[in-house]
Amino acid sequence: MKQLKKIETDNIVYEDKRFDYKANKDLNIIKVPNSLPLFWEKDTKYIPVTSINKSSFKDQQVDALVYSSDSDYEEILLELLKSEDQNIFNISGLISLLENYAPGYNKQYWARELKFGLDQWNSIRNLIDYETSWIDFFLTKNVPLKRILNFSDRELRKTILLLLDLNPGINILESIANLLKEVARKKQTAVKTICEDFHIVDIVTNEKLTSSEKLQTIRKKLYELRYPTIAKYRERMKEHITNIPRTAGIDLHSDENFETPGMRLQADLRSRADIEKLQNWLETQKLHLEKIIDIQKGNDKNEQE
Fold this sequence. Notes:
By secondary structure, this protein is of the alpha+beta class.
């Protein structure tokens, strides 16, 4: 229960952070005009429940809302949590507070109040280790927990931190992260070593490339390291398809990842002449089309090792 009281500012324990669970600690405190600071009275001292600015207290006394000393810590924390919308990193911070200041807390009860399963508890709790830059990125991009956890390795986050300056989308950043982990696992080395080997810093600082081109270049290099055979076939496929001349109304597509066999031919047929044009095109490009099929099946006799 809260009461309106006039308290001595000398009795405020500013360094007590048992209610400080918010992830965005570097953001300026937004204070509602005429709102009162909120404290918990404890052993004649006053513990801040909401963020306060010490410099704003110029007088020896200040009006405040105060939880009585017999108020339960967990109940105050839950009331605070429900007073506004929370992100997944705030919830991680709250779990950390429970572990530090309420060691006897009921995990099942709190999981229900926080609206997630017990099987996710440890994963969410470990988000407390994420750096501010990464927290801001995930919150800005509205990234769901499952995808955030792909960046749970601290060394990975540290290695690709510089990519955040390129304002990547989550899709390409996650693709780069996963490829980097797979290449490191394949080569049995650290992700940092992989990035050093293909000079990621030089790519990021290349002023001739746009941010998008830098990200695409990094992903392409990692893909070639992870899937060298597919990457080689992909380049040869691209070369052959690009070199096939197109007649107006005819287009050709192929799955560059080799997951779907064959090709997709698209033709705009509006007259008998268009049909004849398509027939002639197929006849003249037959050898090129057969070449693409051979590459897809791995039967290219001209393949160079």
